[in-house]
Amino acid sequence: MFTGIIQDVGRIERTTPRSSGRRLTVSTSLDTSSFELGESVAVNGVCLTAADLGKGTFDADASPETLLRSTLGDLRPGALVNLERALRPVDRLGGHFVLGHVDATAKIDEKRREGDFWVLRFEAPASVERYLVEKGSVAVDGISLTVSACGARAFSVAVIPHTLERTTLRGCRVGDRVNLEADILGKYVEKLLGDRRRPEGLSLEALARSGFLR
Questions:
Q1: Closest among 1, 43, 45 to 22, alpha carbons compared
Q2: What residues form DSSP beta bridges with 104?
Q3: Is residue 173 situated within a structural domain?
Q4: Percent of the chain at pLDDT above 90?
């Protein structure tokens, strides 16, 4: 689990085809001597496993499913990526709960400056749009951001200077694809209340039949 607070902007050193997937070698200013083999690292919001470690580098394998559902397959040597190590129980939760499981990819529709801030607008695929609410959270390339506006198949975020300077958003352009992960809390609420497509979800009648109400 992650928080969406980016710890470093790393660089893709090389990509190597591997059993229909791909191995990524990433350089970072994070202290890789403190990494453990098998630990989770979020790369542009995708939870990957550190499979090999070097001085200032780590390798991680991306499966065919991961390449299909994220932008990792687009990465080439020299590309910059957002990095975050997994959350520890003693860490401050400065963002929101991010699992590193990408729901969809989307394009940047608009990027405009408003004073010291930048407003970015993104496509909102149906798999993400249903969980978006104004002032709620969304992970964009692993960055925990607050939704400032929701529209039909689109949403916007206001990015503060600190976030812009310390993430890959500083170099993003209109048309770029990004990884999106909706807030897991919304998914659990939907599951508990029941999908409208199903004949029955959580209701007073269902609770009564199950013996929870008298």
A1: 43
A2: 180
A3: yes
A4: 82
In a domain, 210, yes or no: no
* Contact between residue 40 and residue 100 where contact means Cβ atoms under 8 Å apart: yes
Domain count, the chain: 2
Which residue type is seen at 166?
A: R
Could you give the 3-state DSSP secondary structure of residue 208?
A: helix
Positive or negative torsion for Cα 180, 135, 80, 60: negative
Tell me which residue has tokens 């496509």.
123
Is 113 found in the same domain as 38?
Answer: no
Statement: residue 200 has pLDDT above 60? no
Q: What's the whole-model pTM score? A: 0.88
Name the token pair of 168.
């890959």
Pairing label, strands 8-18, 117-123: unpaired
CA trace torsion 138, 144, 150, 156 (10° rounding): -140
User: pLDDT tens-digit profile of 107-158?
Assistant: 999 999 999 999 999 999 999 999 999 999 999 999 999 999 998 899 999 9
Same domain assignment for residues 48 and 114: no
Is pLDDT at 186 greater than 60 in this prediction? yes
46 with 126, same domain: the answer is no
Backbone φ, ψ for residue 91 (5° rounding): -75, 155
Residues 57 and 133 in one domain: no
Q: Is 96 exposed, middle or buried (0-12, 13-18, 19+ CB in 10 A)?
A: buried
The answer on 109 and 81 residing in a single domain is no
| The two structure tokens encoding residue 74 | 């687009």
Dig out the tokens for 23 from the structure: 């191995």
